[in-house]
Amino acid sequence: MLEWNVQDMHARLVRSEEAYSHVNSKYHAVLDGLLKCHQWSNDISSHLLTVVPDPENPVHRDVYAMRNDIRHHIDA
């Protein structure tokens, strides 16, 4: 009985480790995608701020506010 319980616990541990590995690989794929999106957003917003240099322009204000909002969430 004790041997069966040890084998059962080992089998469960192996399944848990396999599930963790799978979730970890999915997490890294999502993280890579988010990093690419963030870089793309940062590049486009920098370009827009260069194209529209007037701080009173609504586009400039919106892009600047978006960048600050993203920066705030990253720092948190």
Automatic annotation (TrEMBL):
Origin superkingdom: Eukaryota
The protein's name in its UniProt record: Uncharacterized protein
